[in-house]
Design brief:
Length: 443
């Protein structure tokens, strides 16, 4: 077993795709943060649309955008990973251009813009994961994926703060923010394309058995179904907690804002260290643990809301830290598990299917959360707890079936059995041999 105490930032940047690609991620995230949280406000304030119509148009755009994922997966499997990343950013540029060109009251042009923005937002995660998988391998890849998520959350947070400071300018400020978003996405696309990273999965030698690069794609049915439920944790700080704090506990909106900021800061600072810490365990085991932690936090929210006005809001804020830790563990293991299970020649399609399940979860979770909350705290948090524990059980049960199908062998081939020395510094103890030895040995 390897124990790591220090992460080398330069090596982590190289594993994420290199300095130029890291700059592209930062610029894209910063620009996206300027507009993405305020797209509804743009439709209402600038285009003079009603809030319900704007919300429906945005939802339709996200859902229809999911239809593109199979095509994105096939494109990725042809090897042009940096090109697909750049294309996902350019699609958002087109969406911003349509926003700026849309006249007041033109709902269909706004809906089309939301569609292009949705396509870009849905395609980017799978394309980014495929690109990182081209550069890094094994547990180095897991840390690189975690680093990319931390960087993106930091950029989104800074962009949202800058946009909030500019909102006093009204409709004119929103148009300027949209224009800056388009320019940022355009610059990020140029940087990402210039990396010229291309995989050649078809050239990989086919190994015997289902675990080799030439083997069949893993079904991952339980994993994909469970992911739809796991994804609900991403909308808990943005939807569930503000609704509970304001409508049930009658707390100040400041509590909601503080929880959201704390969630962002924790993700940015802890995503990589926690992912590295969890790398001593099998990825599927870590994903199961994430479900248990999330379920425990949901029970904690149920207990906190029972305290009523006064102690309820501080208790909810405290439990939100546990929920964020569960989110960090989930985010650090889920995509990494998919990249470890999928054969190189089918990695793009596997990531596209995973992103499809993520998009479905993000699309339905607001409606499900609000519907459950209307029946009380017990219905909301009790249902989320039961569904998450059931999903965690399904992920764990699929491990036994995956062992017989060769999924464990597939992950063992995904990387070295020791901590990558170029990425991790400090004290690293390498245990050679044995059934529990090293990195990347278990699903």
């Amino acid at each position: 077993m390897a124990t790591t105490t220090k992460i080398r930032p330069r090596a982590l940047v190289r594993a994420c795709g290199g300095p130029r690609y890291a700059v592209a991620l930062a610029v894209d995230a910063l620009g996206t943060g300027l507009l993405r949280p305020f797209l509804l406000l743009y439709g209402v304030t600038v285009l003079r649309l009603s809030a319900p119509v704007t919300g429906v148009a945005m939802t339709v755009g996200v859902v229809v955008g999911l239809v593109c994922m199979p095509a994105v997966g096939r494109w990725l499997d042809r090897g042009a990973h940096s090109t697909v990343v750049a294309a996902s950013m350019l699609v958002r540029v087109l969406g911003v251009a349509l926003l700026l060109a849309a006249p007041a009251g033109h709902v269909w042009l706004f809906a089309t813009a939301a569609l292009f923005l949705g396509i870009g937002n849905q395609a980017w995660p799978a394309a980014h994961a495929a690109l990182v998988a081209t550069v890094a391998h094994g547990r180095e890849r897991d840390a690189a994926l975690a680093g990319g998520r931390a960087l993106r959350n930091a950029g989104l947070g800074v962009g949202a703060l800058l946009a909030t400071a500019c909102l006093a300018g009204g409709a004119t400020a929103l148009r300027v923010l949209a224009a800056v978003t388009g320019l940022a996405c355009l610059a990020a696309a140029a940087l990402a394309w210039s990396v010229h990273l291309r995989a050649h999965p078809a050239a990989a030698p086919a190994e015997g058995g289902p675990g080799g690069p030439g083997g069949p794609a893993p079904r991952m049915r339980a994993l994909l179904a469970a992911n739809v439920v796991y994804v609900f944790c991403l909308n808990v700080p943005e939807i569930a907690l503000p609704m509970v704090l304001v409508t049930q506990l009658h707390a100040s909106p400041v509590w909601s804002a503080a929880i959201f900021v704390a969630n962002t800061v924790l993700v940015v600072t802890l995503q990589v260290p926690v992912t590295v810490l969890m790398s001593r365990f099998a990825r599927r085991t870590v994903l199961t643990l994430a479900g248990v932690v999330l379920a425990a936090s949901y029970l904690g929210f149920l207990a906190a809301t029972s305290l009523g006005h006064g102690w309820g809001a501080p208790a909810v804020a405290a439990v939100s830290v546990v929920c964020t830790v569960g989110e960090i563990i989930y985010a650090g293991s889920a995509t990494a598990l998919v990249t470890a299970l999928a054969p190189a020649r089918l990695l793009g399609r596997a990531l596209a299917r995973f992103q499809l399940s993520t998009g479905i979860g993000l699309a339905v979770s607001p409606a499900v959360i609000t519907a459950l909350a209307s029946h009380g705290s017990a219905a909301l948090w009790g249902s989320l707890t039961a569904a998450t524990l059931l999903s965690a059980s399904a992920v764990a049960a699929e491990q036994d079936r995956g062992t017989r199908l060769g999924d464990c062998r597939r992950e063992r081939r995904s990387g070295p059995n020791t901590a990558p020395p170029e990425l991790f510094g400090g004290n690293a103890r390498k245990h050679q041999g044995g059934s529990r030895g090293g990195y990347g040995r278990h699903v």
